[in-house]
Amino acid sequence: MITSKIVVHSRPEPNITGLMKIDIVKIGGNVVDNEQMLQSFAKDFAAMEGARILVHGGGVMASSMQKRLGMEPVMVDGRRVTDAQTLEIVTMVYAGWCSKHITAALQKNGCNAIGLCGADGNTIRATRRPPVRITGTKDDASGTVRETDYGFVGDIIPAGVNVRFLESLVNQGMTPVLCAITYDGNGNLLNTNADTIASSVAEALAEAGHETVLTYCFEKDGVLYDKDDPDSIIMEITPALYTTLKAEGRVADGMIPKLDNAFKALQNGVSRVVIKHAANLGNTRGTAITL
């Protein structure tokens, strides 16, 4: 006789209606790619009280997969250039393995998670980014202006976040887990920066009247003044200091879109933005972004 085991969540799930405080937490690919760090993070995230949404990257694994298939990842200002073949790879990595592995880790810890890409439930719509003109890229510091076509990369459109759908999931006691794949409504998937997804979701929920807190978690204790000194955490970054840090080259690559999105989120109603180590989710250690 075949019997089945019923898993009962160890902690009651939230039953929330109306306006609420919602934590939007984003974890980077280096966290997802480190099994010990991911499992520890999943336990801490599941222990959070109230409504929460998780957004995850997976760029480290996507780049590794590209190299295994004989492709060289192309990055411009911390963003991945995505041709048709790269789109297939990032979709498999982000919406496949990463999404389901994270969801399973959360379920293990009593967090009733559901992994989604932008096309699922019409959660996030985007438009394909047109070619952009970039001055003084990392590859060319001479100030030369060049045009970059990012390929199948999506920019989230105004009202592109399906707030009502996310609210309905949260009100059912579920935790949405969003990957970096969006869609355009016309059958096309798009690769969208996960930091941008996190900030866009936080902004959309804030516009709907919710109190939103955005936390970026990665493998360092915060934004570092000296990338080689793990103790050189910058406790607070204002727009003026950000300009200085960029000019000095102290923030670069993937940290640039992260900070750009952090400031944009604050300007659009998000209550608080913090950048910290995934292991510090439950404490105050990290870099606060302020206007």
Give an account of the 3D structure:
The chain is of the alpha/beta class and 291 residues long. It is built from 8 helices and 16 strands. It has helices spanning 29-32, 35-46, 59-68, 84-108, 163-171, 194-207, 239-247, 255-267, and strands at 21-27, 51-56, 75-76, 79-80, 113-116, 124-128, 132-135, 145-148, 154-161, 175-178, 181-183, 189-191, 211-218, 236-237, 272-277, 287-289. The strands form 5 sheets. An 8-stranded mixed beta sheet has the order 5-10-2-1-13-15-16-14, with helices on both faces. Strands 3-4 form a two-stranded antiparallel ribbon. α3 crosses α4 and α6 (194-207) packs parallel to α8.
Short précis:
The chain has 291 residues and is an alpha/beta fold. It has helices at residues 29-32, 35-46, 59-68, 84-108, 163-171, 194-207, 239-247, 255-267, and strands at 21-27, 51-56, 75-76, 79-80, 113-116, 124-128, 132-135, 145-148, 154-161, 175-178, 181-183, 189-191, 211-218, 236-237, 272-277, 287-289.
Oligomer: single chain
Helix content: 25-40%
Structural class by SSE content:
alpha/beta
Number of strands: 16
Mean pLDDT over the residues: 90
Q: Count of DSSP helices? A: 8
Enumerate the strands of the largest sheet in spatial order, edge to edge or round the barrel.
Answer: 5-10-2-1-13-15-16-14
Q: Which parts are unreliable, with pLDDT below 50 for 5 consecutive residues or more?
A: 1-16
Shape annotation: globular
Largest sheet report: 8 strands, mixed
Estimated share of beta-strand residues? 15-25%
How many angstroms does the end-to-end distance come to?
63 Å
Rg (CA only): 19 Å
The H-and-E topology, N to C, reads as EHHEHEEHEEEEEHEEEHEEHHEE
